[in-house]
Amino acid sequence: MGRRLLAIMRKEVIHIRRDPRTLAVMFLIPLIQMFLLGYAATLDVKQLKTAVLDLDRSRASRELVETYKASNYFNPVYFVSSEEELARLIDSGKARAGMIIPAGYSSSLARGEKASVYFIIDGSDPNVANTAFSASQSIAQSFSLKLLPLKSPPIVEAIPRVWYNPQMRSSNFMIPGLIGLIMGLITTILTALAIVREKEQGTIEQLMVTPIRPFELLTGKIAPYVVIAFLELGEVLLVGHFWFKVPIRGGIPLLLALSFVFLFATLGIGLFISSVANTQREAMFLAFFIILPSIFLSGFIFPLEAMPKVLQLLSYIVPLRYYMTIVRGIIVKGVGVGALWEHIIPLALLGMAIFTGATLRIRKRLE
User: Which residue segment(s) compose the domain that 218 sits in?
Assistant: First the structure.
């Protein structure tokens, strides 16, 4: 029995050695997970991009802005001249918070009266909104201690207001994100397996000798998964809206159109995997090798602002990052193309590049 067992084990080791790509992916996935969980998987909120509307334009107001910047919670990167401009930045997702210092702020301080500063907070991510809400008030209280004795009431008051998701419900954040996650998983994995299954079973050669052209073969293989993806989208929307009471504030036609743009990227990734993998097991490993980093770097759960700069830069080549912002912008914020075009354009360019490159590669393999 021992010799037979050793023979089977030796045979399996030989199979593993003959498949170095799968072996490499098997060891790389735990490493990637470890680094991503170590650096990206954090709910700490830091350096929130903030738009500042300083209507007072005084030394005291500039000192207040610098105090918030030094706190490491807020990062004033936009200085605007109107409330409309501030609202556009928050609608588009460029700024996660807005700080409004009213005219007369410095005069109130000079008279020893209470001076107010107003905060507009993007509530589409409840974790970020909760932190920004608390930080805006605690920083104002600390700033007041610098100006007055310890037992005096705070002279600077922060008044935060949460937009889009005033109750800061987690379901309003998670369920729109699930649309992107499910569509990405379904189309990438199933498209990769569809082509590889034909190669593994030896039926791809039979299809190639028929009058069917490579373009027709690829279209026929991926079209059913596009339909499945949109059915999944509708399912999540219906359950999320009617069961979890997630409001759908934006246009469904726009969501469907931009979801189709996103599918170019996920289908392209699936086709690329199918052109590299020779077995379904190898295709699954490669799919998870690509999908896992995409989930962490998309902002699905963990805020991108809390990640190291290297990972933030790396996230710009992840299609799911842009689609997450788009789907949450439409469903939670109710914004349109005007607020989302800076996410739509890179998503479309990435999708077309990935899909075109993968299609050309697999057509060469088929021809």
Answer: 170-366
